[in-house]
Amino acid sequence: xxxxxxxxxxxxxxxxxxxxxxxxxxxxxxxxxxxxxxxxxxxxxxxxxxxxxxxxxxxxxxxxxxxxxxxxxxxxxxxxxxxxxxxxxxxxxxxxxxxxxxxxxxxxxxxxxxxxxxxxxxxxxxxxxxxxxxxxxxxxxxxxxxxxxxxxxxxxxxxxxxxxxxxxxxxxxxxxxxxxxxxxxxxxxxxxxxxxxxxxxxxxxxxxxxxxxxxxxxxxxxxxxxxxxxxxxxxxxxxxxxxxxxxxxxxxxxxxxxxxxxxxxxxxxxxxxxxxxxxxxxxxxxxxxxxxxxxxx
Length: 297
Fold this sequence. Notes:
The chain is α/β, with parallel strands linked by helices. The chain is built from 10 helices and 9 strands. Strands 5-1-2-4-3-6-7-8-9 form a 9-stranded mixed β-sheet, sandwiched between helices.
């Protein structure tokens, strides 16, 4: 199955201008322009993946391919990068949409609230209004997924899967206790050294380092991971992380309760961002919800 997925499912990569900022969108399936496709040729549903932080779409390619294959290739699977977490290569065309009602720049688009606006603007501009949506969030992408349900009730989201959801008490989690001082207080100290160290590197050196990192992480991809060593992207990821620590505190029980029938939560037994205690609290507060514990080995 793995070799079949890797060899037979091409991934279409686009860089678009969404809310005035470069955005990478990866698309599994032959449907690359749902708005302009003839209605008869459109699929009935789009699976839309919102990543964690850093929001590098390429990390999710194996997952997207597996989803596309498991649905018997009937539905497109798209992955969107976070605003400010992707820069197009010099030889890559950046697509624009003339009728984008949200073409104006959003204030603080790389922050927590701006990222929500960024996802909403994309869905409203690039997905037909009548197309059903399955939204899959990972980590902080789960927070964004809940915000999509809360702030855009007109979008036809029929299901949302929240994978290892960082939707509450982030700074109190085991990793949060370590990350909070680094992201909120000391991140500025890394900006100048990061630029001085990484910016002058030739692309060949960056590619070599990234290949070594991916090998250690047991990841393979036909797409570029150069944004992993791009100071602009790393700084924006750290900035988003600082806001996560400060603002993702109280779980949005009201939104969860309103949309509970559409939600499936997956927690991990050894996830240091949302520990098992958070899963137990969710089960206690929403006993009728589809809340699952995934045993990681």
